[in-house]
Amino acid sequence: MLTAGLHALESADISEISLRALAREVGVSATAVYRHFPDKRALLEAMAREGLAQLGQMQQRAAMEAGDNAFSATGRAYVRFALANPSLFRLVFTHCPVRGDGLPEGNLAADMLLASAARFTGGDKQAARRFALQSWALVHGLAMLMLDGQLPADEALIDQVIDGPTMWPAAS
């Protein structure tokens, strides 16, 4: 069901996805679906968690490949994921539960962001959280502006905004 839902999201709006239609597609009864997903919201939440996991994996790969430039690489990966998966990206941030620090629950990317931010802030937890939220706001805002057509989805612009002179403090 989860795979079918993610596949349906590639070509349909969230509002068009139905548990009954997905059940028919995967060859199970509608009542069987409700044992796993009590309602559409539960399925969308599971899809959002999967999208968040995919985003985290993409950012983790980018960080590993970038070495010393891992922080910027994860930001670029974030924007590129959004552009490659616009419906899934929007679903992640409309249907994923939020944890106490304001970041999506179960978010490997958020945990990586907080850990990286701590390097830039000398271990000050409050400053690290603020820096993490500023960094997330920058890449999320850039992604949304590009998805909404307010800025061109341009690789050079992504690099310019994320790697250019910004509020990023020097790494310690």
UniProtKB/TrEMBL annotation:
Tagged with keyword Transcription:
yes
As given in the record, the signal peptide range reads none
Keywords attached to this Swiss-Prot or TrEMBL record, sorted alphabetically, are:
DNA-binding, Transcription, Transcription regulation
DNA-binding region residues: the ranges are: 18-37
What would you give as a GO molecular function for this chain, any one?
DNA binding
The UniProt entry, under InterPro entries, shows:
Homeodomain-like_sf (IPR009057), HTH_TetR (IPR001647), MT1864/Rv1816-like_C (IPR025996), Tet_transcr_reg_TetR-rel_C_sf (IPR036271)
Classify the source by domain of life. Bacteria
Question: Coiled coil where?
Answer: none
Q: Does the record carry Translocase as a key word?
A: no
Pfam families given in the database record? TetR_C_33, TetR_N
Q: What is this protein called?
A: Putative TetR-family transcriptional regulator
Species whose genome carries this gene:
Novosphingobium sediminis
